[in-house]
Specification:
This protein is an all-alpha fold. It is built from five helices and no strands. 74% of the residues lie in helices and 0% in strands. The model has no long low-confidence stretch (mean pLDDT 83).
Length: 146
């Protein structure tokens, strides 16, 4: 009888230890995902602050907007940061629920004429990333009036 109690206690200890390890890993992964997302979001926000307010106006058509080389570089960095963030989401580095918090803002940003103009100039660069291209095409489709 004592032997059964000791085996049960050993089994219980192993089960509790396994649950504790799983919980720690799960929590760590969530924190890591949130940290990655927040750092990229901060990067995009910092870059956005370097752009003039006129870039964020919805006037004009893509291709008609004149921006300086420094502003163009900032827009490209924003686009690349969003691309990296999107790829991290696709590959499971953070939960989709975290992405959904910021996705409407990202879509609104990428739909602005200056970003559409620069996305068109970078189109060939992302041709080898079909998920990103499909997501960008979906955004363009939502923008066009029915």
């Amino acid at each position: 009888m004592l032997d059964h109690i000791l085996r049960f206690m050993t089994l219980g200890t192993v089960i509790v230890g396994s649950v504790a390890i799983y919980t720690a890993l799960h929590t760590n992964n969530r924190r890591l995902g949130a940290d990655i997302f927040l750092r990229y979001s901060d990067r995009v926000s910092d870059l956005r602050r370097r752009l003039p307010v006129t870039v964020f106006l919805e006037r004009g058509a893509a291709g008609d907007i004149e921006i300086t080389a420094e502003e163009r570089r900032a827009v490209h960095e924003i686009i690349h940061s969003i691309f990296e963030l999107y790829e991290l989401k696709v590959h499971g580095f953070f939960p989709s629920a975290i992405w959904k918090i910021r996705e409407p803002d990202i879509e609104r940003l990428l739909s602005l004429p200056v970003f559409q103009q620069e996305l068109a100039s970078l189109e060939g660069r992302y041709a080898r990333h079909p998920r990103l291209v499909a997501w960008l095409d979906k955004m363009r489709g939502q923008q066009q009036p029915a």
